[in-house]
Amino acid sequence: MAARHLRSGLPLLRAHLTASESAAVTQGSRGFASQVAKPTGKQIKVPEALYGGTGNYASALFLTAAKGNVLDKVETEIKTVVEASKKSPMFSQFIKDLSVPKETRVKAITEIFAEAGFCDVTKNFLAVLADNGRLKYIERIVERFVDLTMAHKGEVKVVVRTVIPLPEKEEKELKETLQDILGKNKTILIEQKIDYSIMGGLVIQFGQKVFDMSIKTRAKQMESFLRQPLEF
């Protein structure tokens, strides 16, 4: 069923994502463009503009890590922090509890991650978050930092929701279509998610674009059409 919907929907996907729309995807606030080359020397910029407090922190971390040539290491380490907060209720509570004195938070964070062997960029960044009482936003900051590293590497994450796993042939066809739309210089990373709520078909999402070919949405559209008054 998903394969049939994909085959019938890919021409529509091509038509729906025009060249201008593709540019909007790659240049949006959560797009995936990599408009600058790998940072060298002093010419280091964030690949896309992020806004808000978490965006500012993520951008600052990106620039510092890029200058130190430790982007991959920093990404791995801060992802580890997020995973630790998810697995340990005690650690999660600690980083969110602002009643803990600032000095205690900073000291604990510095010692914990020094012992873990984290690089100076990551340790200093986490210490700043602890000092400013912003550790509770670490998950969102990391998400936005990863957006920057993916954009920097020319990677595009595509989430495909179906009720059954997408067959390899259809996944390959989807990937080729997206490659044509976004450009051969992009690396397409497809993440499949099982979502029984869509009832069938599939939903494709990347950047701020959502292409909905689900049975659930089509059923709602049909219901809306049938509820319209008849004109004689």
Automatic annotation (TrEMBL):
MF-aspect GO terms: proton-transporting ATP synthase activity, rotational mechanism
UniProt entry keywords in alphabetical sequence: ATP synthesis, Hydrogen ion transport, Ion transport, Membrane, Transport
Major localization listed first in the record, in broad terms: membrane
Subcellular location: Membrane
UniProt xrefs under InterPro entries: ATP_synth_OSCP/delta_N_sf (IPR026015), ATPase_OSCP/d_CS (IPR020781), ATPase_OSCP/dsu (IPR000711)
GO CC annotation terms, alphabetical: membrane
Pfam name, any one: OSCP
Statement: the UniProt record of this protein carries the keyword Ion transport: yes
PROSITE patterns: ATPASE_DELTA
Family: Belongs to the ATPase delta chain family.
Protein name: ATP synthase subunit O, mitochondrial
